Amino acid sequence: MRGMLVRLWLIQKRLLKRRSFFLLMCLAPLFAAGVGRLSKEPSGIAAIALYLPEGDQTAAEIADRLLAGESVLRYLPCGGEAEARTLVESGEADAAWIFAEDTEESLRELAERRRVRPVVTVVEREDSVPLTLGREILSAAIYPSYAYAVYEGYVRGDLGMEEMSDEELRAVYESVAVEGSLFQMVYPDQTPGEAEDYSYVQAPLRGILAIWLTFCGLAAALWFMQDEERGVYDKAAGRKRLSASYRACAVFLADAAVVLLLSVKLSGVFTDWKREVVSCVVFAACVTVFANLLRLLCSTPQRLGVLLLPLGALMLALCPVFVNLPYFMAGKLLLPPWYYLQSIHNVRYLYLMAAYTAGLFTVSLLFEWLVDLDLIRR
Questions:
Q1: 3-state secondary structure of 254
Q2: Beta partners for 97?
Q3: Strands of 46-51's sheet, edge to edge?
Q4: pLDDT higher at 217 or 240
């Protein structure tokens, strides 16, 4: 045991002498701190120039719904319709939402179907997915006012209860109105969706860090292969060399795992210490075996280096970093970051990741055994 600890310490000392190692280790926390700071700044997937006529209570209520809480849109208040259009023309805003001068009357006429006038005029330079989402958000903010206008028109017109005051009508409506959301988002581990309170800017950070740690494992495998070419491991052969490569990768990834945990904490996407540490440890072990299997299959640093770029693109496309595609399941099952990202809220994937790691380790031993028997040439 003492000899093992000495070997691990010597590997750590060699890593500390590499400038590229420090660069890799500093990259993740600096990026995470930057994203964490950026998420606190005003931001949005689209900028909306918002014009509200003065003294219009209904328009003010709709605006309050738009501005309440966190939003993926960034709103730019305007003092007039001309100013809102100018912001769109100059490119400072992606769209302008111009409320009618009498929003309440427009909604009432729309509800009674006497006359259809635009409640909000939307000005856009070009249509896009964020602006389509924005129009859905605008419709959701207008709907409660429209629903009340329909209710009011039905009670006063169809039922003939014109003697009811506005206060009485509003009180009856609010007594039966459904408040809150009809749906509740819960993760498989029963964690409520509201528990992860972070912006869309922070959302892909964990996936990017998972890919970063995978590349750390591949970098460790590359450095080990370069040491092999220099003759550092000439005295070790077969399974002894395989165990040496696992030690080298394990030390590197132990450092990277600590940095990943700190980066997740700095960025504000941290969940629970126990869950984070266990998932990260199993993930680091998985990447260690994964990188070493690729080292055995590629056999030269040049071949492994050529594989890095397409492998990175594959992980970005298939792992749930920016989007979670429901296709290519066979490809996802071969990528360690996919298991890690799923395991944060579903312990089932933690067990699958451990089984995947054991399977890769078995394949590595079998491959090395076949090489020793000269059944496979590297």
A1: helix
A2: 50, 122
A3: 73-78, 46-51, 95-99, 120-124
A4: 217
